[in-house]
């Protein structure tokens, strides 16, 4: 079973993902990203390629599509939070979206927020 990233792993792995538009999902230990495509066909094409990558990794995103928007949430349900599988899948999805999608950065909280402990939120 895959385990949740500890604080040091989060610090090391999450900062680079924030630069590519990944954010902290509200109310859960998860990554979220929204991509904007030229049209529905481009969005669907990305999702088809992403599905093949996810299947090879045996790690599947939660996502939704509305016309040219694809919103992706990554978390590892088996361990109840963000794991190395989510980091790897985020990287694969970023590579697929590079040059064909625009990132909507106006969602979620800063990704490094997932490094903070619950006591930090008070």
TrEMBL record:
EC primary class: lyase
Pfam family, one: Pterin_4a
GO terms, biological process: tetrahydrobiopterin biosynthetic process
InterPro entries, alphabetized: PCD_sf, Pterin_deHydtase
EC nos: 4.2.1.96
Highest taxon of the lineage: Bacteria
Alphabetical keyword list: Lyase
Catalytic activity as recorded in UniProt: (4aS,6R)-4a-hydroxy-L-erythro-5,6,7,8-tetrahydrobiopterin = (6R)-L-erythro-6,7-dihydrobiopterin + H2O
Gene3D superfamilies in the record: Transcriptional coactivator/pterin dehydratase
GO function terms (MF aspect): 4-alpha-hydroxytetrahydrobiopterin dehydratase activity
Classification via PANTHER family: PTERIN-4-ALPHA-CARBINOLAMINE DEHYDRATASE (PTHR12599)
Family note: Belongs to the pterin-4-alpha-carbinolamine dehydratase family.
Designated name of the protein: Putative pterin-4-alpha-carbinolamine dehydratase
Lineage of the species this protein comes from: Bacteria, Pseudomonadati, Pseudomonadota, Alphaproteobacteria, Rhodobacterales
């Amino acid at each position: 079973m895959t385990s949740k990233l500890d604080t040091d792993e989060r610090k090391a792995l999450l900062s680079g993902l924030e630069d590519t538009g990944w954010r902290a999902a509200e109310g859960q230990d998860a990554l979220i990203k929204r991509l904007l495509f030229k049209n529905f066909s481009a969005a669907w094409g990305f999702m088809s390629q992403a599905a093949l990558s996810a299947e090879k990794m045996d790690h599947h995103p939660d996502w939704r599509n509305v016309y040219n928007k694809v919103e992706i949430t990554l978390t590892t349900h088996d361990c109840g939070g963000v794991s190395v599988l989510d980091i790897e899948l985020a990287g694969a999805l970023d590579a697929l979206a590079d040059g064909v999608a625009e990132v909507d950065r106006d969602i979620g909280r800063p990704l490094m927020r997932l490094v903070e402990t619950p006591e930090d939120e008070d």
